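TL;DR need structure tokens for one chain.
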Amino acid sequence: MHFKIVSPSACVDIENIQLAQSHLESLGHQVSLGQYVFSQYRYLAGTIEQRVDDLKQACLDPTVDAIWCGRGGTGAGMLLPYLDEWILNKPLIGYSDTTVLLNYVVMHGGQALHAPVFQEIAVKNLDNSLLSYDALKTISLLNTDQNKRQHYALTSLNDFSQDQVIEDTVVLGGNLTVLCSLQGTAYSLQLHQPSVLLIEDVGEPYYRIERCLTQLLQSIDISHLKAVVLGDFYQCPQKNVPQSIAEIANEHLEPLGIALYQCDWFGHGQHNRPFWIGKTGKIIDSQLIL
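>> reply
TL;DR here they are.
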């Protein structure tokens, strides 16, 4: 495959990008870098114009099979007013700050893959691995017939999720804080059909997580929200809070009759298994099937 690497958010780690490029090319893939992928403007990977231009050129290049975002961080939301139908031309890969682009793409009919950012995929060890397991799964998913279902294990956390079958739901979500930064804008997350919301976060204290969850629930049509799946809330300081993230979330969701699940396979932690945002699937026997 031909992957184009762009940096729509914060400045990337040049060494890690180049290492990932080398490793991916050694596996037989073509990797090209956006013109401004290593640019720096404050803490951003270039100006808005530079970042939009790289993204647009990648989308319009007929030789490119998929676009892989170099890093998350911050800044992708600045690009939203400048996007057009060209953003729907190729599958877009990333997570964290890329959440804003992933959900924009799927709400307009494109393909978005929640998966590790490019600077994270190279393995630095002494065995024969070149890319992380999650990176290899990402490439495999791009090459897999989308009619072939993927199974993701879940843990049931409330009465509404136990022995529950939830069918014909669309998967949305990503980073909770990033999603909430869009609510109240023209690019906010909107639920128009039965949906499952997958959320994760990093470094946020529990009170901020609860505040964001409250904002999100108050700004979407919860009549369409059938389930919430908690991913990894990595290095989120609990401090003196006696409840877990799951318990706090359930205090908000159970009165609404919304199923709550938890898993350890996506987020900023050790595992970040890829899954298609915007794909329709179901939850049955504590498995998300997409």
